Amino acid sequence: MAFARIAAALGLAIVVSVVAYVTLWLRAGVEHPLHAALAILAFAAIYIGMGALVGVFISGVLEGSLLVVLVFSLDVFSGPAMTSGGGGLLASLTPTRKAAELLGAAGAGRGSPAGDWVAILAVAVAALGVAVAAFWFSARSTA
User: Fold this and answer.
1) pLDDT of 66-111, one tens digit each?
2) DSSP designation for 102
3) What would you measure as the largest C-alpha separation in the chain, in angstroms?
4) SS3 per-residue string spanning 13-82
């Protein structure tokens, strides 16, 4: 059951990522298309993990959704696109920091160091691992 939920979430994440990428490409153009697509997909994977983790602790759909929106808002408004001096402590702790930097570099036509790609891959895989664990835990506790 946990893997079916993750597969469904990943399917939705891919669809939403494609729509987001096409929108970005049509509105602003993209210098490094593959980099931008992977960074957008990394955002989706990270938020799958966050949403699943919130769902374990908050049973109300509205309350959980609002908490995810709050986390998203803090994440976006403390990220590299919205801050001038690096964003401080909060910005350095957000899990999407590297994905935002990679997306910004892709849009500006700059390459990204391999270490950044390894870091975002590790964060995305960890987020999906958290999602699997959260789904697994919630399925086991209701059985």
Assistant:
1) 999 998 888 878 766 666 555 566 666 778 888 888 888 887 888 7
2) H
3) 50
4) HHHHHHHHHHHHHHHHCCCCHHHHHHHHHHHHHHHHHHHHHHHHHCCCHHHHHHHHHHHHHHHHHCCCCC
Number of domains in the chain: 1
Buried b (16+ CB within 10 A) or exposed e, 10-43: beebeeebeebbeebeeeeebebeebbbbbbbbb
- CA-to-CA distance for 16 and 105, rounded, in angstroms? 21
Q: Quick check: 122 and 143 in contact, CB under 8 A?
A: no
Domain housing 42: 2-142
Polymer length of the chain: 143
pTM assigned to the model: 0.81
- Rounded Cα gap, residues 93 and 89, in angstroms: 6
